[in-house]
Amino acid sequence: MRKTLKEIAKLVDGQVVGDGEVLISGASGIREAVEGDITFLANPKYNSLADKTRASAIIASADTEGITKPVILTQNPSLAFVKIISLFNPDDAGHPSGIDFTAVIGKNVSLGKNVTIGAYSVIGDNAVIGDDVIIYASCYIGHHTKIGDRTLIYPHVSIREHISIGSRVIIHSGAVIGSDGFGFITIKQTHHKIPQVGTVEVQDDVEIGANVTVDRARFDKTIIGSGTKIDNLVQIGHNVLLGKNVLIVAQAGVAGSAIVGDNVILGGQCGLVGHISLGNNSIVTAQSGVAKSVPENTMVSGYPARPFMTTQRVNASLQNLPKLFNTVRELKKKIQELEEKLKDK
User: Fold this and answer.
1) How many Cβ atoms sit within 10 Å of the Cβ of residue 191?
2) CB-based contact 282:296 (threshold 8 Å)
3) Which of 135, 138, 83 is CA-nearest to residue 109?
4) Which helix or strand (DSSP H or E) is residue 85 part of?
């Protein structure tokens, strides 16, 4: 399939600057693109690559100047590029369909319309599966668990009993939803398990990455708010409350009973202690350790996490430590020389 640049601009509501008749047959990153591709510039720091790319055209923000290649100017180049990728690379993942004969389906299970259940998957008693749900091979859905319409569950996902999964949720391979929370009482050096009798509620339009674990609550619910996206290898502890549209990057951990507000971003490998709260729109940068609550609209970083600019100043000071050490050593030497002179007098 080939489209002219003018046709693509109409799709993304953009403005063509240059030859609108250029034919585009694919979309790719600015370094990987070849002739016939369209690429994008979302960050001004990469503008220098515009003249080096082999792409035939570029999507850029409306205020971009100085690009010599044909360009589509738009308010949001990243979003426009997503639409173009979908145009040239339609979703042809080839999801399975139907219920495999090896699937094990329990008693009183409610199946919606057009449900897919892959080979060797197990659906527990009294589970409720909504319309157009796709459950790949070797998944486990526990008893009394509910899954909303158009949810996609990839292979080897385990969803324990009495769990609620919303509509249009995507859960990637290896994820475990509803595992026991980490709770023990230690008596005379013996750890006694505390029963975890709560549940997990995953709301609509959530995406959960590969090998994510979401623990069930000790009581009540662990909640993943609607629109939240969780990267691979993330741990969500028991009774955690994640707000709406939260972004959590790989290898982050949120300890039990923490409250994370709406639109919060947690960077890769950051950690939150339990029983704290992060206000709406706050940001925790990568590898930070958050030990106390964070107000809304605040960026924190470092270990322990502090306001971002405070951490930047601390880091800048640390870079000067060798220089400061040499200065102190020289001052000590001069003081010693002065003391010797005073003794002589």
Assistant:
1) 10
2) yes
3) 135
4) helix 77-88
Task: Tell me how long the chain is.
Answer: 345
Tokens of residue 174, six digits? 């290896």
- State the CB neighbour count (10 A cutoff) for residue 340: 9
Element of type H or E holding 247: strand 247-248
**Is 238 annotated in the active site?**
yes
Can you give the pLDDT of all 345 residues of the chain as single tens digits? 899 999 999 999 999 999 999 999 999 999 999 999 999 998 877 888 888 999 999 999 988 888 899 999 999 999 999 999 988 887 656 899 999 999 999 999 999 999 999 999 999 999 999 999 999 999 999 999 999 999 999 999 999 999 999 999 999 999 999 999 999 999 999 999 999 999 999 999 999 999 999 999 999 999 999 999 999 999 999 999 999 999 999 999 999 999 999 999 999 999 999 999 999 999 999 999 999 999 999 999 999 999 998 888 888 888 888 998 899 999 999 999 888 888 876
φ/ψ of residue 74, rounded to 5: -145, 160
Segments of 23-147 assigned E as strands: 23-24, 26-27, 37-41, 57-61, 71-74, 104-105, 110-111, 116-117, 122-123, 128-129, 134-135, 140-141, 146-147
Whole-number Å distance between alpha carbons of 338 and 306: 42
CA distance 137 to 100: 9
Residue type, 138: S
pTM here is 0.87
Catalytic residue among 95, 144, 162, 238: 238
Contact criterion met (CB below 8 Å) for 97 and 25: no
User: Please, what are the domains in the chain?
Assistant: 3-88 (3.40.1390.10), 104-308 (2.160.10.10)
Q: Which helix (H) or strand (E) holds 324?
A: helix 321-344
CB atoms within 10 A of CB 129: 25
Rounded distance, CA 44 to CA 38, Å? 17
